[in-house]
Amino acid sequence: MKAQPTASHFIDGAYVEDNAGAPIDVVYAASGETIARLHEATPDIIDRALASARRAQRDWARLMPVERGRILQRAAAIIRERNRELSVLETLDTGKPLQETLVADATSGADALEYFGGMAATVTGESIPLGRDFVYTIREPLGVCVGIGAWNYPTQIACWKAAPALAFGNAMVFKPSEVTPLCALKVAEILHEAGLPAGLYNVVQGRGTVGAALVTDPRVAKVSLTGSVPTGRKVYAAAAEGVRNVTMELGGKSPLIIFDDADLEDAIGGAMLGNFYSAGQVCSNGTRVFVQRAIKERFLERLKVRTEAIVLGDPMDEATQMGPLVNAAQMEKVLFFIEAGQSEGARLVTGGARLNGPGCYVQPTVFADVTDAMTIAREEIFGPVMAVLDFDTEEEVIARANDTEFGLSAGVFTRDLTRAHRVVGQLEAGTCWINAYNLAPVEAPFGGSKMSGVGRENSKAAVEHYTQIKSVYVGMGPVDAPY
Q1: Residue 175 known to be catalytic
Q2: Which residues of 107-127 are buried (b: 16+ CB within 10 A; e: fewer)?
Q3: Which of these is catalytic: 145, 159, 183, 283?
Q4: Backbone phi and psi for residue 247, each to the nearest 5 degrees, phi listed first
Q5: Annotation marks residue 249 as catalytic
Q6: List 90, 145, 161, 186, catalytic entry
Q7: Which of 98, 199, 428, 473 is an S-S bond match for 52, by CB 3.0 to 4.6 Å?
């Protein structure tokens, strides 16, 4: 098998196998070929991972933060040196085109390790004067953290969760999605090659039962999940039983608002990035594209031309711009939504079909004349399906944009920056863009509101989610006791 790893799990600084676990087949979405077979973590594997993390974390927390940072920065440098081979693995794991993975996956993981490596030594407490006495605070690690990844960005998510956890003195047990289990193993291998002590970053494979076992284990202090809203509900409830810290980045049905004064080509480019990048399998995608009525037909005409020029094909060919969906189940889900759009009366502008031949390919699809009540305007599709809705006034579109249980992202295209800031200020979303879309640098907080999540990933905000504050009151005089 062309992508078979050394073993299924990475625990205490080494690859570990346990064939007693249920098999997990890794299928290359472009061909249907099984490229690796892993095994789900057994209770013994889970226990070994958590035990090694708990043991290693104590000494790691006592290490000088600058030393922790150097290790993460060395890991970032190794990832950059091996970007091509890691990108090829990401393409095999996900089906995303190499043109994309070369610039968006391992490199963004390296960015996170580099950024938090540099931040490690800057995290300090404060001194609070109280006259004769004073209080000082200490930022301490939480302990053992569990990371649960999604299948669309396996390398990036593994690093986004590892980097702040490790930088601030925690250990992590990471469970990648069973759909894309390969890349996290390489992240673990590289971290330890860079000097990370054994036990601090462990990878265990498995489905929901493995995730549930990790989330409910009393040795776990914090859970970070990237996934769907239904999974988030279960994880949040399970973590609450143990009063654990939780951050969750969940799904979305994000609005992208295009006013009639926007630069048309830029707006179309933003809409395409927000719907077709990674074959539409991005949680923050702006899949409800609100276009002001005066420019609607011009917008659709140019969008059709540019969409039909997208190059679909072999993900390993760097000329390919869009690859297959991650697996057959996801493809069938997307085709169901396309059928629903047609049956409910949306106008199919382009696309709408599966490509003939092997692989899970669906044409980039655009629907127009979509109304707010249609299924394709309400539910997260997670595929290359854009819904274009008309609007007339600013007040109207803000109300309609906010009429959803989700609140992950939103975007606005307009030349009127005063209006842009005014509109963004009223949108109920955690991550917003003005005249851009789907850019997520590690320096900026990322996360959602409403049903789209709790907490933030990346940036200085991560300090709040991977540390706790200890307050120390220092008495500098005699104790004043009434008895």
Answers
A1: no
A2: bbbbbbbbbbbbbbeebeeee
A3: 283
A4: -125, 140
A5: yes
A6: 161
A7: 199
